[in-house]
């Protein structure tokens, strides 16, 4: 296919920054095609189209990582190699998110209301489940448990999708990227609206400030959450490839996959701590 052939899957670990461009391009194409074909389900169709473009690239990468399990004996070497994959996956996620934020902010409201209706509903559902004024240690612990359990469900589905479909975790992560993009886009529009109301006009600096503040606030804890999901997805993908190739009985493959899953749980808990105790303190 044309889109997937634009990026070489055998060098993405050496040039991870290229994946930002890949995610950005796949998202622009996916959204406009989804809107042109089926407006009623444009949001979810765009996610599928983005995933479709990334699957060949990700499958080749995960297959290589599984082969490394059979090549190296030391787990520390394998984890270093996996870190390179995690880096390019993060660039891919940021590319997808950035493109969707720009589309949500700058496209006409008549279009975004149709394209991102499911994402907006998902945000409302999450907010309704996490209502409450986060003041007091006991309340913060309650919010922490809710956030961690909610994120744990996402991680669980990333793992299951990865095991069953090899690269299936990318669907969950792309959907989350679209939801995060809508949340960031809403914040940017809100801040720009405040500036317009006070000053009477919008400037480039207003857009830049709102976008930067939104990005930093989201990434303060979001970078850990997404990293955890990708780590679990990579572990599940390795299990999937090993099962297909009948290598899952190999002790090194099993240990490597379990290490990745355990690391993802630790990173996910760290993300919840940051979201509850650090992000509100920095952006109150």
Could you explain the architecture of this structure?
The chain has 284 residues and is mainly α. It has one domain. It contains 9 helices and no strands. The chain has helices spanning 18-37, 42-71, 75-106, 109-115, 117-129, 137-165, 169-199, 204-244, 251-282.
Q: How many beta-strand elements?
A: 0
Please tell me how large the radius of gyration is: 20 Å
What is the H/E order? HHHHHHHHH
Query: How far apart, in Å, are the first and last alpha carbons?
Result: 47 Å
Instruction: Based on Cα principal axes, name the global outline.
Output: globular
By secondary-structure content and strand pairing, the structural class works out as mainly alpha
Number of helices: 9
Estimate nothing, just give the exact number of structural domains: 1
Largest sheet: none
- Report the sheet-strand fraction: under 5%
